Every structure is written in C-alpha cells, then in structure tokens.
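Subject: Interface between my chains keeps coming out wrong

I've been trying for a while to get a sensible model of this assembly. When I model each chain on its own everything looks fine, but I need the whole thing in one frame so I can look at the contacts. Pasting all components below, labels as-is. Any help appreciated, I'm running out of ideas.
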Amino acid sequence: MKTKMLLAGVTAGVMFAGSVLASTLDDVRARGKLNCIINTGLAGFAAPDDKGNWTGFDVDFCRAVAAATLGDADKVNYTTATGKTRFTKLAAGEGEILSRNTTWTFSRDVDLSQTFIGVNYYDGQGFMVPKSLGVKSAKGLDGASVCIQTGTTTELNLAEYFKGNNIKYNPVPIETNAEAQELYKAGRCDVYTTDASGLYATMMSFDNPSDHMVLPEIVSKEPLGPVVRHGDDQWADIVSWVLRAMMAAEEKGITSKNVKELAAKDNKDKEINRLLGKDPLQGLSKLGLSPDWAVNVISQVGNYQESFEKHLFPLTIKRGMNALYRDGGLHYIPPIK
Amino acid sequence: MSEKTYRPGNYPDLPPPPGTVGVYGWIRQNLFSSISNSLLTIISVLLLYYLIDGIIGWFFLDAVFDADSKIACRKINDGACWAVITRRVGQFVYGFYPEAERWRIDITFLTMFVAFAPLLYPDIPKRKWLLYFSVFYPFFAFVLIMGGYFGLQKIEYSLFGGFMLTVILGVCGIVCSLPLGILLALGRQSNLTVVRTLSVCFIEFMRGVPLITLLFVASSMLNYFLPPGTNFSILVRVIIMFTFFSAAYIAEVIRGGIQAIPKGQYEAADALGMSYWQKTRFITLPQALKISIPGIVNTFIGLYKDTTLVVVIGLLDPLGIGRAALADTKWNGLSTETYLFVALFFFVSCFAMSRYSLWLENKLNTDKK
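Reply #2:
Try treating it as a single job with all components included. I did that and got this:
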C-alpha cells in the first residue's frame, strides 16, 4: 500500500512537471506524430498485418485521434505495452493515449491519476463450450469442469456467479491463456471462461470454430476504454469527443463513403452540419481543432460501426452491448451542439 | 581332402569366418544377436518409420509454404502452415523497421563480422588494420541503425523488433559486460577496501535480483528517478540492465578462474618485482580467462536467450513478433509453426557460440596438450 501511494505521488509529480511545459496538443503538433500505447497483440484489437502496419479496433482509435489533431490518420507512432507496463508508460509520457483494452475501474481512475475518457468496448466475462456438450445457458453447467486462470478477477467472478446460482463446478486451474486453449482442446475441461472478446479470439484459433459456442451469459463488467493522463483537460476533451464523433457518425448514418458528400451540402439535420463543420460548433476553437476534424476522422478511419465491423466481425463478435442505445446497446452519447 | 600344412610359426592369418565382418556381420552382431534383440530392432524400426514419416510429412511434404491465411493453408494441405513465417519473414528479422531503410541493418550486420573477426580470430591477416575498424565500429553501427546524422532518416526505437532487436541486445550486452565483469572480478580480489566492498555489493545485488525485476526498473522506475525531459530510449536502458546483470555473473566466473591459478605464480611475479598491473596483465588474466572460457560462454548464451524476457516490458523480440502474428485473425492458431521457427533461430545462434568457445578452448589449451 505504501509503495502504491508513493508510486501515485511520484506519478502525479512527474505529470505536474510535464503539464507545466506545454499542452499535450502542442506537443503532438510540434512532433507531427501522435504517440499511442497499444497492446503487444490481441486478436481484433491490435495486431500487425503482414506488411507490419498495426490494425485493429484499438488501433483505429489512435488513428482517429491523429486524424482529428493532425489531419492524417497515418501519423501515429505505436508503442507496445504489456498489462503490467501500460500505466507507467502512459505516466512517463511515452504516449499521449493508452488505447489498450483497459478496464475502467475506480482505483485505476483515481489512485493511478488517470483519466478514462469513455468506453469504446463493453466486455465481460463469458463461457465457451463445445456445441457437443448440448448446453444452451450457463445455468446448465452444473457439475462441469471449468478452465480458469488463477489469480485473476475472472476466478473471483466465476466463484461468485456459480455460488449465487447454486451451481456446482470443478475448477481446473491454469496459468496462461495458451495453456487454457490446449487443455480445452484436449477436452480436459468442458468450459473455458475469460473475457468474451478473448473467448471469440480463442475460438477462431481452433481448426473448427463452428463446433464451439459462447454462452449468452456475461457475468462481469469490463468496460474498456482509452486512457489519458490527468492534468490536461483540453487533451482529455479532444480524445473523448473523437470517440463520441465516431459514434455520432454511426447514429446519423455518416460513413467514410458519404462523409465528403454530406459535408459539402446543407443537411436538414443540423447536428450533421455542426459535426462536419458546415455550421459553427461553439467552443471548437477551445479544443484547438480545425472545423473539418470530424470529417478527417470519419473519412480516414470510419464511424464506430465501420471500425467495429472491420475488426471484430471476423471474430464473430456481435454488437450486443456495444450497439447504440437505439438498437438496444449501451452507447448513448451526448448531443453535438 | 587336402589340407595344406605349414611349418610352425609360418601359419598365415586366415580371414575371419563369414558372417562376422562387414555390414552383414555388424548388423547380425548388434541388431539380431538374439530373438529378443531381433524383436526390439523390428519394433524400433517400425516406430522410427512412423515417427519420421509423420515428422517429415508435417514439416515438408504436406506443408504449405505460401498462402494468404491459415484457412487458405488448410484448404491446400494439412501439414505445417509455414506461410505465417514466409509472409512475415521481414517482420521476424527487422521488426517494424521501415522497409526502405532495411539495407542499413543489413550493412550493420555484415560489417559486424568484419569488426569481430580480429577480436575472435587472432591469426587473421592484417589484424592491426581491422582492429582500427573494430574500435570505430560501435559509432558506425549506432549512426547507421538509429539515423539522424548524415542525412539518414531518424528511426524511432519503437520500430525495432525481431531478430535484429535480439542481436542488438545480445551483442551490446555481451561486448559491454565482459570488460565490466573483468574489472569487477579484479575489484573483488583487490586489497583496497573501498573497491572491494563496492564490487562485492554490486555483484551480490545484481545476482540477487531477478532479471525481470531489473527490466521493470528499466522500463518504469528509471522514468521516476530521472528528471522529466531526460527521455533516453528504453533500448539503452534495457541494454544497461542486461550488461549489469551479466557482468555480475561474468565477474564470479572469472573470479573462479583467478582463484584456480596456483599461488606460486603470484609469488614468482612478486619476486620478479612486477607491479600490480603488470602482474594482472601478464600473469593473472591470461591464465584466468583461459580457464573461465566455458563459464563465460555459458553466461553469454544465457544472456542471449534471456533477451526474450523483454517481451514483458512490451518490446517485440522474435517471440513478441510471433505472438503478435498469432493475434492477427488471419494466422490465429499457428503457434507450433511460429514457436518452432523462433526456436530454430535461437538454436543456430547459441550453437554457433558454443562451437566457437570449443574452438577457442582447444586453441588456447597449450599446457595440457
């Protein structure tokens, strides 16, 4: 606990010293590149393609912020971080954004002095079973053996959920995700449980993915989102409104294909006009962004739906909780006015 | 029947009875000498046949060497899908270093052998001239790899990765830790209390802390200790940590060598009136280093393989590149191929080091011949 406080204190000190020098936006503009901290490799969220370009859902968000601030989505330096080093890398200034499927929790937000700017993916712990097991719901898992990573929050969630529903199970403790895949494939456990996005990625690595299924129950809350350092509200606003602009674009039906056309004409929906820079958006100059910021984001990266479908549909991930509120999901953004 | 007779002492050597020499004889004696032996042989041959057939089939005959994705691989054949390697070989070798600038790495790597040749092979012709190049080489390599001078494009360290990163970390660590290790070993044997205490503290601390901890210190804690703005690259920080860590081990290996030298040698040197440095240079070190070669190379090979630990602080060495490749939905699930390829790379490099050490041992082994 003491070391944690010390760490937080030093972090705050470093960040205070950093914020005195210049605003984050000025730093990024002066450098001409955005530094973005991403995962070292997670299917659908961040992975290099054969040519060495990073792609993925989290990577798209870095590109969107670069498009809004620098006008070019390709002006991003990617720094990879593991789960253990990500926060210190952000605190030490190795990146302006941490876009690395990071769960928003109280202590990370408050104790580590960071700002979570929103949720770009609602994840949660789920269960994967072979279809041959004939189970349609987690409630039918009575007596099943479950592969579970020890020492994680998933272990606790599992125990709580099964105890709450009066279900008996045999835990098969394992250390790593790779080990779990092997045990599950070998039939040593009937069920594998971890974050749902991870389950889909694991399933796609099997030779016959269609023989397996993810059960509908999600037993924990894992809101994932981009993170910035405390202390620069302008930068936090920029990053959070880039995320909202992508969602607003989906809501208003603006896509990378029609955005130029919509930006050129006077639309009936004034919110589209304000978003695309046709009508003035009060306060935009305070953010230091040019009026075509959202056009750049949407034309170069796409709206939220396009990014989601491009990177997560190949993993057979459905929109589910990540649909817009009007489609029964959780993404409800403030109006652009 | 006419038996030829010989006088005593003149009997010629007859050929051995048929069936005991040659290939047939060897097989009969070693593989089919009894019923149980024969059975074992037949079973082993059958087992070997199935095993080798399966391995060769998976590795080569049924393998797919080029395809667009794992699914495309599986459509062609059901052996190994080496396409994940062939399509990404550039990434495995150079990481994310820009493609147009990769010649810089090639040149640095090739000239490395020129720079090392006079150090590794003392009999090489024109050694003196080559040695000048060796001294100049670190600066040359630094400028070429990092860029930023002489019109070369500056390359961010975050683009470094793959085998190139392993070689940079390994070579820098090895080259820097040997001299530091020698100094520490001498310091630990020194009569000067301050030098000895400092050396002992350094060695014991570095040996007592896991390398992963040091890497975390390099990646996270150093940022807090240094004043903000002094942002020297994580690569340099990691190299320093590797150097310190392996220097502590080298120091202990060399100390073992120093202590193996008979006391009479020192007394003779003292009797000849040699100064401390003369004694060290002409008596202690030549013998101590020769004795410690296997231990030193052992430490180096360990260090080289430990470079894979940088994965935990987010640097993408070959193992990291491999994992990132597996995170690509196209190649998801080809872990066997990826890890085998990385293992092959490490085996080749480490085996070469071990062979060199054997050669050097034989060459320097003058007193026991």
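Reply #3:
Confirming on my end. The mean pLDDT of chain B is 87.
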